[in-house]
Design brief:
alpha/beta; about 400 residues; TIM Barrel; globular
């Protein structure tokens, strides 16, 4: 396969010199684990103490990793990326809420992004987290088949209602919706709900997409089991494949509570698991649609090679590549330049509310081997190219 991801001119075509310098500065900071820990603590303190730091956050880390404070604020970024063939997934990245009014607000915002996407070719997907619609502890209780109180049952019914309304709106407006995966202890309940939505709304094509975190060793078996259900009940499986974003939390909890970790034994085992899921879905593409959410160059090349060998066109609507905004531009923009379907997750929301997401992003970059150094090497190569 031709190695296309080293082309920094294409990767950073939209970045001005000053934006490139800011990216270099941010990744240099993120590369330093102690600095990330100190920065996280200081930022959290400053926000809780209501110190005037939002402007500083907005002009640095926020603007690099986020599209804006609301959906309209994102349009400039959406339109610019689309000039290079890269689509957007507007992601209302407000996390860790616990109150009903906050869940209703998140539901309303996701509904708005579905409406927003309907009007714009540049936004082919909507997205949300299950815990944006209800408490994580309730998902956990339902997943463990525990008996709910009458109040909890009413609360759970409201979660089901919100989820169904969002999926129906996506179906009615022909906008695919990606439903993110979260911690393993809440995921069983979320999986069951999303499977119900697939059965209801994925009769003709994939509108509802679940997410498989392939750093979990049980996910390929889950996919195969769901496929058996799909064959019996005649629905299409939509699946976003990712490696996973809660590794340290998952391992710590398993150790603390004394159960077998759901995480693969090694990075290589995770990579093999991811690639096996891609292969399985390609083998059954007549009944599946893939959103390959990966920052891994090797997995991206493998999927490209598989598509070529199977005579699948780069623009086949059943296969999308996805990366996060502010990361892996060398993958996103070079894939788009070669005609593949590519979408960037574009987080948005009030600066203060999006901070948990940004902190998780920084921590994840420090824990993923090679991720930050690769970003820095690419930026350095582009700076050198521009000088020459």
């Amino acid at each position: 396969m031709e190695k296309i991801f080293t082309n920094t001119q294409t990767a950073f075509a939209l970045k001005s010199d000053s934006e490139l310098e800011r990216a270099y500065f941010l990744f240099k900071m993120i590369e330093n684990q102690p600095l990330v820990r100190i920065g996280t603590a200081v930022t959290n303190f400053a926000l809780k103490a209501h110190l005037p730091v939002e402007g500083l956050i907005r002009s640095t880390v926020f603007d690099h990793f986020c599209g804006g404070v609301n959906e309209n604020d994102c349009l400039n970024v959406v339109d610019r990326m689309y000039t290079k063939g890269v689509s957007s997934v507007l992601d209302y990245s407000v996390e860790g809420k616990e109150a009903e009014d906050q869940f209703e607000a998140a539901f309303t915002m996701v509904m708005k992004t579905i409406e927003f996407a309907k009007e714009r070719d540049a936004i082919p997907f909507a997205v949300f987290k299950p815990t944006g619609l209800g408490r994580i502890s309730l998902y956990q209780k339902v997943g463990e088949k525990a008996t709910l109180t009458s109040a909890e049952q009413e609360e759970w019914n409201r979660i089901i209602e919100r989820l169904d309304k969002l999926c129906k709106a996506a179906y009615d407006k022909d906008v695919a919706v990606l439903i993110d995966a979260e911690e393993s202890w809440m995921q069983d309940a979320a999986d069951d709900l999303v499977a119900q939505m697939m059965k209801k709304y994925n009769k003709e094509k994939a509108i509802v997409f679940n997410t498989l975190q392939m750093y979990r060793w049980d996910r390929l078996d889950y996919l195969k089991k769901l496929h058996e259900e799909a064959k019996k009940e005649h629905f299409i499986i939509g699946m976003k494949l990712v490696r996973g974003a809660y590794l340290e939390k998952e391992n710590s909890r398993a150790e603390e509570k004394g159960y077998k970790s759901p995480i693969c034994i090694s990075k290589q085992a995770t990579d093999d698991n991811y690639d096996a899921a891609v292969d399985y879905m390609l083998d059954h593409l007549d009944k599946m649609a893939i959103f390959a959410g990966t920052h891994n160059e090797e997995s991206s090349y493998k999927l490209m090679q598989q598509m070529k060998e199977r005579n699948i066109e780069p623009k086949d609507s059943r296969i999308w590549f996805g990366q996060l905004y502010g990361m892996s531009d060398n993958i996103s923009y070079n894939l788009a330049a070669h005609g593949y379907n590519v979408a960037k997750y574009l987080p948005f929301g009030p600066v203060r509310d999006v901070m948990p997401y940004l902190i998780r992003r920084a921590e994840e970059n420090t824990s993923v081997a090679g991720q930050t150094s690769r970003e820095l090497d690419l930026i350095k190569a582009e700076k050198k190219r521009r000088k020459l």
